[in-house]
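STRUCTURE:
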């Protein structure tokens, strides 16, 4: 019964995403996380604006069902990202959820983040620093990251605040090896009320398959660099590739988005928690850990879709089906 229910709700989540796209009509893309869901790479593109609609269907672990009485639920996030420079990007996010067991619907808050790549030119591992302010209801359910403990190995004391006000920081390192991106994030979530810092990690691997030699739907990286000159007058994208609105042609710099059209990404993420400043360590029976196959597809030079199946690796972990839709301006 539970499996059939989850499949039906996954179909509902997909239909919901397509409904949003059809209502909005235009101008929703993939954020600067290289198609990952939790992991960030070091990619930043100046002048790029991306709008992402993110949906999760979650089946809570038996531990959470017993402790919190949770049933299956949908969680959603809308994310807007802007590439301020070719090293600095900023994002604003709002989130809410719908409990499929109780029919409860609730807006839970917002997040505002900034990411800065330390070196303008490409260097080994491309280090980047990340900071995010979170103002969230305690019932928030969208998994932007995993940290801390689900079942703490100590007795919690003190009065629980009415909201979570968190400063999240990350060290991001990533490397492109041909068509493969490798990335690692060390995650810190510091409670601004003084309750300490929770730790987490995320690894990502993404293999990009580029559609080539099709001027109407996509081009190879080599053709992209050939058509996209830094000189606006020399740009041939608009005349030679139907529908292309290259950033170079608009005089804004950056890479040609036509190169993204038809791109397919196949990847894997591994993410989880590592305790906190009270008790640090790896204890899967009390923490969330996930292995998550990922698929991404750039429908054209602007529209993107990606999905992920997050498999819980511990008794405290949930099972998730994640579906994102986006538009790159």
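SEQUENCE:
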């Amino acid at each position: 019964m539970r499996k059939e229910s989850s499949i039906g709700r996954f179909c509902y989540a997909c239909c919901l995403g397509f409904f949003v796209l059809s209502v909005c009509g235009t101008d929703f893309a993939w954020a600067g996380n290289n198609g990952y869901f939790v992991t960030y790479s070091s990619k930043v593109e100046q002048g790029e604006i991306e709008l992402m609609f993110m949906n999760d269907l979650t089946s809570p672990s038996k531990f959470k069902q017993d402790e919190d009485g949770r049933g299956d639920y949908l969680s959603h996030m809308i994310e807007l990202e802007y590439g301020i420079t070719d090293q600095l990007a900023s994002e604003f996010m709002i989130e809410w959820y719908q409990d499929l067991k109780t029919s409860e619907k609730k807006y839970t808050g917002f997040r505002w983040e900034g990411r800065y790549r330390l070196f303008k030119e490409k260097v080994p591992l491309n280090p980047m620093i990340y900071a995010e302010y979170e103002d969230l209801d305690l019932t928030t359910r969208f998994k932007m990251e995993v940290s801390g403990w689900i079942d703490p190995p100590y007795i919690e004391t003190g009065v629980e605040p009415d909201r979570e006000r968190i400063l999240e920081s990350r060290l991001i390192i990533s490397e492109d090896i041909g068509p493969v991106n490798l990335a690692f994030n060390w995650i810190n979530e510091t409670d601004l009320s003084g309750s300490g810092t929770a730790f987490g990690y995320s690894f990502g691997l993404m293999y990009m398959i580029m559609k080539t030699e099709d001027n109407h739907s996509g081009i190879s990286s080599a053709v992209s660099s050939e058509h996209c000159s830094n000189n606006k007058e020399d740009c041939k994208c608009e005349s030679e590739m139907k529908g292309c609105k290259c950033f170079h042609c608009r005089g804004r710099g950056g890479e040609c988005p036509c190169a993204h059209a038809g791109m397919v990404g196949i990847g894997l993420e591994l993410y989880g928690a590592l305790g906190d400043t009270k008790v640090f360590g790896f204890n899967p029976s009390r923490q969330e850990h996930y292995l998550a196959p990922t698929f991404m597809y750039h429908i054209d030079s602007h529209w993107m879709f990606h999905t992920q199946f997050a498999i819980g690796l511990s008794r405290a972990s949930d099972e998730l089906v994640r579906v994102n839709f986006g538009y790159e301006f």
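REMARK: Helices lie at 2-24, 62-68, 221-227, 237-240.
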